[in-house]
Amino acid sequence: MLRSNVFDYINVLDKAADASWLRNEAIANNIANVDTPYYKRQDVSFETELKKALGSNRFESMDEKVSRIDTATLNPQPYTDYPGFSYRLDHNNVDIDQENVYLAENQLKYQGLMAGIQSEINNLKTVMK
C-alpha cells in the first residue's frame, strides 16, 4: 500500500479549526455567564499541545514535524482559567471587555485557519490537474 502525507497539513489545520470552534463556544459561554455568581471563566488549550506534538528539533523541516503528528491524540482541552481568582464580590472572574477581545481574536484565527485549509485543498486540486 502506498503511504502518502498529502493530507497531513489539512488534518492538523482541521484539528486547529476544531479547537478554535470549541474556544468560540467557551467564550460565548463566558459572555453569557458574565453576571452569574461564582462562575469561573473557561478556555481551551490547544496551542501548547500542538507545540509539544511538533517538537523543538530545529534541524527538522516543518513537513517532517507535521507528518509525525498523530492527529488522533491531538485534542483541544477545555479548562477553567484561574479557578481560585476573582476580582469581583460575586466571585465571578469574567471580564466582559476582555472576553470580547478574545472573541474577536478567535474569530480572526478561525478565518485564517479556514483560509489555510482552502489553500491546501486548492494546492491538491492544482496537482491533480
Give an account of the 3D structure.
This protein has 129 residues and is mainly alpha-helical. It has helices spanning 8-32, 47-54, 62-68, 96-128; strands at 42-45, 77-80. The protein has a two-stranded antiparallel sheet. The chain is elongated.
Topology readout:
Blueprint: H1 8-32, E1 42-45, H2 47-54, H3 62-68, E2 77-80, H4 96-128
Helix pairs in contact: 1-4
Shape: elongated
Number of domains: 1
Amino-to-carboxy terminus distance: 23 Å
**Uncertain spans:** none
Overall helicity: 55-70%
Structural class: mainly alpha
Oligomer: single chain
SSE arrangement, N to C: HEHHEH
Instruction: Report the total helices.
Output: 4
Strand proportion, as a percent range, falls in: 5-15%
* Mean model confidence by pLDDT: 90
What order do the strands of the largest sheet run in, or round the barrel if closed? 1-2
How many whole angstroms does the radius of gyration measure? 18 Å
Please outline the major beta sheet.
2 strands, antiparallel
Total DSSP E strands: 2
